[in-house]
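Good morning,

Both structures are done.
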Amino acid sequence: MFNSKWQKTVKSFNTDNSNKYIIEVPLDTDIQFVALDMDGKITDATTKQYMVIKKTGAYDYNESLMSLNVDAVKDSALVYIIHHWIAPERTYYTPKNIKLSSDRYWTVDGIIPPGFHATAQISYDGRAISFQQGSSPNGGYLDNDFLKNVPEDSIVLMFRPLISIRGTIYPGEWQQMKDNTDYIKTMGAKTDEFGHFKILNLKKGQYCFGVYDKNAGVKPILPDNSGFDLYPNPAANSLHIKFKDPHYISSLQVYDIKGKKVKNYTSPSPASNDFSIPNLNLAMGTYILEVSTNEGISCKKFVVEQ
């Protein structure tokens, strides 16, 4: 944890067999950024690195497989970059003609103040290799499986913003970045499956490679991580909330995927297991429902289709 004076606090803990642990932070604590295992001591499918950046210049995140060139910084910035060695989650509104990387993605987070600007470079490498001299290729570099037999000019860069609602971070929807506006792609030969993306304005969020694929648009089932059921999901013009036990709901808030509040219901309700929200009147898209009850606040993502 980092506060506004850039003081770092480390909280160590052991989990039980449930793999769950709650860390309590007092409300009056000046906490600006919280992350789990910033120093990479846990064995998981990530490599990560952070730097406190106080001046312009080049910064190599070797562990995270990304390099930065900072050309503007007014105040110090904490830039935390994670390289995930697993496939990214395909979100509901990921463009149907885009197949996401099967191997990896990046998360950029930290304390990035106004006035900070940086470009970043990441590389894709789908080249095949032979483990025995003179034999046919029987292996490959990081993106070999994903980019095998893929025309190199069809490789694109995807971005997924991170939004914060009451201190909880929710990843948004994957969106295709624009060539020569959001990034510049540098290729070698069109068939060697090796090249670089230069991100022109690095932002907090997630990045991954994508390729055009007409069969990519399989919609996933949205994960259920809250204490209530929400249906139908996708919704049209109404929602139903179902708890296992009776709850008192004091308010319901609906946020769009950019974190803007678009609906506010504040009428207290009697204790019940089931609640309904009629007449949503929301445009097609992804939203987050925040439910305030006598036991606390819970949130869940839902989709509107019409």
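Second structure follows.
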Amino acid sequence: MKQTTPLSAEKSLEEVLKEEERKLFLAKMFEEMTIEELQKLNSRVVSTLKQKRATAGLEIALKLEVGQVVEIKKEGWEGIPVTITAIKRTRASVKTPNGDYNVPFSMIKIEHKSKGVKKLENELSNILNDLAKEDGFFDK
């Protein structure tokens, strides 16, 4: 049985109809494609997915630090803080109450700010407080 997109407050009827129309167009287009064309399309889709996943992983990796407390996005692990012990190319090693694990970046949820970010925020706050104390600094 085909599932349809339910109407919600977020999507108007016009948006839902436009999306369904696009899906039907794509389905018809795929039916008319040759095997070779479908294979080329598939390889492009796979390479695009790999690139997007790598980019997303890199974005997460740049936000991580050893000693940072994060959470794991996996059923049964929600809300359990774990500590990063090492950062590798595609994974982070974490210390949990149940032992140490290697976790892909895509499964890491950054809830808590890293020590470096907290330190920068504190320094910025101190600078702004000092500037506010200077007579008439913000009046200029």
